[in-house]
From TrEMBL:
Pathway: Lipid metabolism; fatty acid beta-oxidation. Keywords: Fatty acid metabolism, Isomerase, Lipid metabolism, Lyase, Multifunctional enzyme, NAD, Oxidoreductase, Peroxisome. This is Peroxisomal bifunctional enzyme. GO terms for molecular function: (3S)-3-hydroxyacyl-CoA dehydrogenase (NAD+) activity; delta(3)-delta(2)-enoyl-CoA isomerase activity; enoyl-CoA hydratase activity; NAD+ binding. PANTHER family: 3-HYDROXYACYL-COA DEHYROGENASE, PEROXISOMAL BIFUNCTIONAL ENZYME. Gene3D superfamilies: 1.10.1040.50, 2-enoyl-CoA Hydratase, Chain A, domain 1, 6.10.250.1420, NAD(P)-binding Rossmann-like Domain. In the N-terminal section; belongs to the enoyl-CoA hydratase/isomerase family. It comes from Cyprinus carpio (Common carp).
């Protein structure tokens, strides 16, 4: 946990040894306290060097211990002893120094940071020995340092506070940080530290802290996929991918090309027409150049090839199809790829919800077919849903997951069903939002409630950004709207359930969102981003309500949140029951990284557990009674089962999920 060595007969070298990140667990704190005591009491020791094993100084407190009561010695007295000691202590920092690890470095009298500090420990020790006589320690104690306090501190912090409130809506920690900075600048050290401890205690005991800790581990759990066959992340070897091809240079295709090229993979990009190819090429080159400039590296343009011919793909390791969301077209592409590519080439689809196994079925290698569902813009968004078809091999899944990681994505393995996890859950969420419009709410009221909850964007603002025509096309293909559907017979119902045609009416007016300058909001120009409420939408809603004799009512923010988010979580429970997601953590990670769900709320499933499953069940029953023609509001059997089992913690739900067959 901490190794103590006497080096050169006078320097104590204390090495933190708690892999993988040398977190300050209770055992480490105990060993550190003992080692420091030994060093300070040993007359032979004239100086101390603290470092971390395996190229990492310290990743801070052991977050796993936060779930229980504090055990072992507290950190602050240890830090105080180092700071006040009569022997110089040097932090030799390599890799990370985070949280409590950073505090540990701060109280040391000297800090040396290098990307390979272990090579330097002996030199550091020598330098420390020499400087000992020259420099008295009083000037090296952090408590003796004065913090500069600008005369306009209040105004400065006010500006920062406003910025933080805008960027991290509803999040407590950044505001507490500003208060701690104020305390440091205006109070003596001991009082400032006391204030900081109080702020820390408030945060530490908050629901937000629990949510953020949950997110940290959920993100890491998501990479550890497992199949009922026994194949899993640590026993399935991914293939090495050196070359890839992308079919389709629309918005998604371009982002995927950039994501691959910037990690050094050669990419062949294919389009069907010369003009589309040229436009796509220019866009990709521009994106890569801007990206490289931002990262201070040179753009990897030599890795790219642009072509109109699928024949050029015969030798690539992997293909990602990113053509229009049209099953017939995708099947044609997969049939062609089957003929052209060498038998070992992996064939992936970027479909956002179509049947991956149906595509596998038209190829000569269904075991090498897998979904790689990127989120737009693909070179920015961190989420990748890896859609495992029933015939995808474990090697194929491992390769897609590992390629996602290589591109810096958070990859989550999901099963194959319409919409997979993310988009399947989006439907009930968006349905509730449009039903609320019918009942009397406005897009801006619903968006504000969701943004106050913490979403980066409300549902209507997000739809305008994504483009309203995509969903419209899908609804037409599923027979929910279009020339063959009589909107009056029956009105506001399709396939035996409630249906809101307002989104179709918006699209019929050519309002497709930001790209057309009009959508649920109006924008200064096509492509504009500054959303303003549009009186025409207000008129449309009023006319619609009067046509169907709907008496608008005042709808509270609480109802908006409950109906949208409990319907969302309810679908999540069904997804768990169906074996489309293996764990609630996977669902939460998908919503955190793909749909802007606020991290300090932990994701839809964690949020439901924090609200209390009993309460979620009671509200869903209430809303389902009021809207019996909305099946998504009917509480799922798993939710009922969990409540009947006493609402266990989210980490243990898996034990209660008995799926007949997993789709993973
Ligand atoms: C006694 C209390 C006194 C003082 C309290 C002070 C406040 C704090 O210190 S709060 C903690 C602050 N520290 C952090 O927030 C760091 C969190 N960790 C990270 O950001 C990263 O893990 C990393 C250190 C930058 C390393 O990143 P990477 O190389 O990508 O590895 P990972 O996959 O993220 O992590 C590997 C492995 O380590 C586990 N882990 C990492 N940090 C901690 C930690 N602080 N506590 C416990 N466990 C940690 C992580 O879960 C991974 O575990 P696996 O089992 O391999 O999944």
């Amino acid at each position: 946990m901490a190794r103590y060595e006497l080096v050169k007969r006078s320097v104590a070298l204390i090495t933190l040894t708690n892999p993988p990140v040398n977190a300050l667990s209770s055992a480490v704190r105990h060993a550190m306290a003992k080692s420091m005591e030994q060093a300070l009491n040993d007359p032979k020791v004239t100086a101390v060097v603290i470092c971390g094993e395996n190229g990492r100084f310290c990743g801070g407190a052991d977050i796993r211990e936060f779930a229980g009561p504090l055990r072992g010695p507290p950190l602050v007295p240890l830090l105080d002893a180092i700071e006040a000691g009569e022997k110089p202590v040097v932090a030799a920092i390599e890799g990370v120094a985070l949280g409590g690890g950073f505090e540990l470095a701060l109280v040391c009298h000297y800090c040396i940071a290098h990307f390979k500090v272990n090579h330097f420990v002996l030199k550091i020790i020598k330098a420390v020995g020499m400087s000992r006589a020259a420099k008295p320690l009083s000037s090296r104690r952090v408590s003796m340092l004065t913090t500069p306090c600008p005369p306009d501190l209040d105004a400065l912090l006010e500006v920062v506070t406003m910025e933080v409130k805008k960027k991290a809506r509803g999040v407590m920690a950044p505001l507490a940080c500003i208060q701690a900075v104020r305390a440091a600048a205006t109070m003596p050290y001991s009082k400032g530290i006391k204030r900081e401890s109080e702020l820390m205690a408030t945060l530490f005991n908050s629901g937000q802290a629990r949510a953020l800790q949950y997110c940290f581990f959920a993100q890491r759990t998501a990479g550890k996929w497992t199949l009922p066959s026994g194949a899993q992340w640590n026993n399935s070897k991914p293939r090495e991918i050196r070359s890839a091809a992308i079919i389709g240079l629309g918005t998604m295709g371009r982002g995927i090309v950039v994501s691959l090229a910037r990690v050094g993979i050669s990419v062949i990009a294919v389009e069907s027409e010369k003009k589309l190819l040229e436009t796509g090429k220019q866009m990709v080159i521009g994106m890569l150049e801007r990206d490289a400039k931002r990262r201070g590296v040179s753009a990897s343009l030599n890795l790219l090839k642009f072509t109109l011919s699928l024949q050029d793909l015969k030798d690539v390791d992997l293909v990602i199809e990113a053509v229009f969301e049209d099953m017939a077209l995708k099947k044609r592409v997969f049939q062609e790829l089957s003929k052209v590519c060498r038998p070992a080439t992996l064939l992936c689809t970027n479909t956002s919800g179509l049947d991956v196994d149906a595509l596998a079925g038209v190829t000569d290698r269904p075991h090498l077919v897998v979904g790689m569902h990127f989120f737009s813009p693909a070179h920015v968004m961190k989420l990748l849903e890896v859609v495992c078809g029933p015939r995808s091999s474990s090697e194929t899944i491992a390769t897609a997951m590992s390629l996602g990681k290589r591109m810096g994505k958070v990859s989550v393995a999901v099963g194959n069903c319409p919409g997979f996890v993310g988009n399947r859950m989006l439907k009930p969420y968006m349905d509730q939002a449009t039903f609320l419009l019918e009942e009397g709410a406005t897009p801006e009221q619903i968006d504000k409630a969701l943004e106050d909850f913490g979403f980066a964007m409300g549902v209507f603002r997000m739809s305008d950004l994504a483009g309203l025509d995509v969903g419209w096309r899908i609804r037409k293909e599923s027979g929910l709207t279009g020339p063959d559907v009589d909107p009056k017979n029956p009105p506001r119902r399709r396939h035996g359930r409630r249906y809101c045609p307002i989104p179709d009416m918006v699209c019929e007016q050519g309002r497709f969102g930001q790209k057309t300058g009009r959508g649920w909001y109006m924008y200064d120009k096509p492509g504009g981003t500054n959303a303003k409420p549009d009186p025409l939408i207000q008129n449309l809603l009023e006319m619609y309500r009067s046509r169907y004799a709907i008496q608008p009512r005042n709808i509270s923010d609480q109802e908006i949140i409950e109906r949208c988010l409990f319907a969302l979580a309810n679908e999540g429970f069904r997804i768990l029951e169906d074996g489309i997601a293996a764990r609630p953590e996977d669902i939460d990670v998908i919503y955190l990284f793909g749909y802007g769900f606020p991290r300090h709320r932990g994701g839809p499933m964690f949020y439901a557990s924090m609200v209390g499953l009993e309460r979620v069940l009671e509200r869903l029953e209430h809303y389902h009674q009021a809207h019996p023609d909305v099946p998504h509001l009917e509480p799922s059997p798993l939710l009922k089962k969990l409540v009947a089992c006493g609402s266990p913690s989210v980490q243990t739900w898996r034990e209660h999920i008995k799926t007949m067959h997993s789709h993973l």
